[in-house]
Amino acid sequence: MDDPQPGRYHLYAGWFCPWSQRVTIAHALAGLRDVVTVSYVDNVRDGRGWAFRERYGPDPVNGFTLLRQAYEATEEDFDGHVSVPTLWDRGTAQVVSNDFKGIGIDFATRFRHVATPVIDTYPEAHREEIEQLDAWLNPAVNRGAPGSTAFLDALGTLDERLATRRYLLGPAITEADIRLYVTLVRLELRLADFPHLWDYARDLYTVPAFRDTTDFTTYGQAGELLDWDAPVDRPEGIPA
After folding, report:
1. Smallest Cα–Cα separation from 52: which of 23, 10, 91?
2. How far apart are CA 99 and CA 52, in angstroms?
3. Could you tell me the CA-to-CA distances from 68 to 74, 75, 88 in Å, in that order?
4. Contacts of 240 (CB under 8 A, 6+ apart)
5. Which residues form the GST N-terminal domain (predicted)?
6. Closest Cα partner for 73 from 59, 60, 88, 84?
7. Residue 90 confidence (pLDDT) above 80
8. What is the band of 149 on the pLDDT scale with cuts at 50, 70, 90?
């Protein structure tokens, strides 16, 4: 990615996708609303792939009908995997990344000089701790099998951790919280069995960057069976 400039990049996202939501939350917390534009593919993937349809409107950048066309414009005879999030460079008219982890970190770090972040979600002093936690969190929770003993044990571990701290690493939201939230928000009733974790998830939901990127209608039953607006009492922290 070349030097980030306002208006140069566009993010193709999907409301349904937890990996995509990680990036849209990072985008909001990095203060990039007026720097990197965002549009959404439809929630239903047909035989042609991810498409732009009436619900979220047409592709505002290139007029593509399918996200695949962005990849084909980048690489002739492209025959690889098409996914959201996808970051498009208007300057070179190419896809520059579909690495959800890398895009989110870039938004929090490389774009700081062209935006006013709400909060620094990838502070240098905590990066090692964030990635160490992720080495466990990603396989155990993000890619875990909901309902399995291992998954429920992992939720129990998180519940204990969050009994005395507002966020995973302490008083401030970091990239670690973004990574956990996108899985929690897609769970169903079992989340309420872990009171500290449930309070933590609702606490994050009160933050506009999390709430405004969450659409329960795209998650099946998740969210419909729980009261995400119930009052929450958490340890003191740094507001976002």
Report:
1. 10
2. 21
3. 10, 11, 12
4. 29, 118, 119, 172, 173, 207, 209
5. 16-100
6. 88
7. yes
8. very high
Gap between the Cα atoms of 133 and 182, Å rounded: 16
Strands 86-89 and 9-13: antiparallel
For the chain, list the domains and their CATH numbers: 9-114 (3.40.30.10), 124-218 (1.20.1050.10)
What mean pLDDT is predicted for residues 181-204? 92
**Token representation of residue 37:** 């534009």
For 80-160, where are the E strands, in sequence order? 86-89, 94-97
Q: In 3D, which of 110, 128, 111, 96 has the Cα closest to residue 33?
A: 111
Residue 239 clears pLDDT 70, i.e. is over it: no
pLDDT confidence of residue 233 = 83
* Average of per-residue pLDDT across 174-194: 93
CB atoms within 10 A of CB 92: 11
Amino acid residing at 7: G
In one-letter notation, the amino acid at residue 205 is Y
pLDDT value of residue 69: 98
Report the distance separating Cα 29 and Cα 239, nearest Å. Answer: 12
According to DSSP, the residues that pair with 46 across neighbouring strands are 49
CB 37 within 8 A of CB 60: yes
Question: What pTM does this model have?
Answer: 0.96
Interatomic CA distance for residues 70 and 133, integer angstroms: 34
